[in-house]
Amino acid sequence: MPNIPILILASGAGSRFQGIKQLQDIDGVPMIKGVIHSAMRARGGEVVVVLGAHRKVVAQAISDMPVTTVINQNWEMGMAESIKAGVECVEAHFPKVRAILITLGDQPYIDASDFDRLVALYIEHPDKIVSARYNGVCGVPAIFPDTRWQDLKSLSGDSGARELLRSRDDVLTVEMPEAGRDVDRPEDLV
């Protein structure tokens, strides 16, 4: 079983949510902790959480969890900066790793079995990007082999890995409608 760290991007300010989205209660658990629990139960590897806005309070909320945290000092510059910080953390702390799974801290409806389906397909095709497919498009969660990490670190702005996933012919997909249910506004919790 390959060690595939799961990188959870949780550095945004949640301005559309009008509060600290990462700490929003879902089924009695802060959203970020629920996402971490799902990642920890998956067949991946280490869990790395990228924090930025609200980093002190979110770090405190997850301080009892066995995760590696990294601070994205440039979180206001967009999701690409969080991806870059996370990839650089994995490169520094887990140098033998050959792939990384990227997911969002506001995708609480994804569970361990969803991550496991991505990992299973990646094991069969370790040279390919493996992505969730929902609402007719490719998106995260997605697994990127180390041959694509430079592409990830070259991203800019707030589009995240979306442009890589949609502009390549080496992307394999797993249908995952629940990945399309992210939480941007309070009404998304209904």
How would you sum up this structure, described in words?
The structure is a single chain. Strand 7 (129-134) and strand 8 (137-145) form a beta hairpin. The protein has helices spanning 31-41, 55-61, 79-93, 112-124, 149-153, 162-166; strands at residues 6-10, 25-26, 29-30, 47-51, 68-71, 99-104, 129-134, 137-145, 171-175. The strands form two sheets. Strands 5-4-1-6-8-7-9 form a seven-stranded mixed β-sheet, sandwiched between helices. Strands 2-3 form a two-stranded antiparallel ribbon. It is of the alpha/beta class and 190 residues long. It has a single domain, classed as Spore Coat Polysaccharide Biosynthesis Protein SpsA, Chain A (Alpha-Beta Complex), CATH 3.90.550.10. The relative contact order is 0.19. It is globular. The chain has six helices and nine strands; from the N terminus they run E-E-E-H-E-H-E-H-E-H-E-E-H-H-E.
